[in-house]
Fold:
Amino acid sequence: MNNITKRLENIKKLQAKRWDNEEEYWDEISDLLLKELEEILQIEPENTVALINLGTIYSDLGENEKAMYCLKQALKLGSEDKNLYINLAIVMVGMGMHAEEYHEYLEIAEDKEEDPLTFKAYFDPQSH
Structure:
């Protein structure tokens, strides 16, 4: 297993801890995740897992423009990850886009598989 894969596994574990300790450590863990993902992308600029996860963190922080940029980069690079398509839809909802604009991504996601190293952005259906 290479170093980048190990770092991405640790990022996924840290992401889970961020949600478990949302009140106490949200900002600190978010900052750490952003730093780690950006470092990975300096080493491997076309790492779609890192791009998807970076977009997810930005989405969770309400930085939808940055999130969309990262996710679109992963899409351009050919990622077929289920979480990419789901996260694109979540970001589009967050940006106030109409349902017909993001439903296509949700439909595409139905036939895809989730990469074990990526994660979904937070989505609260009650808030939209």
DSSP finds six helices and no strands in the chain.
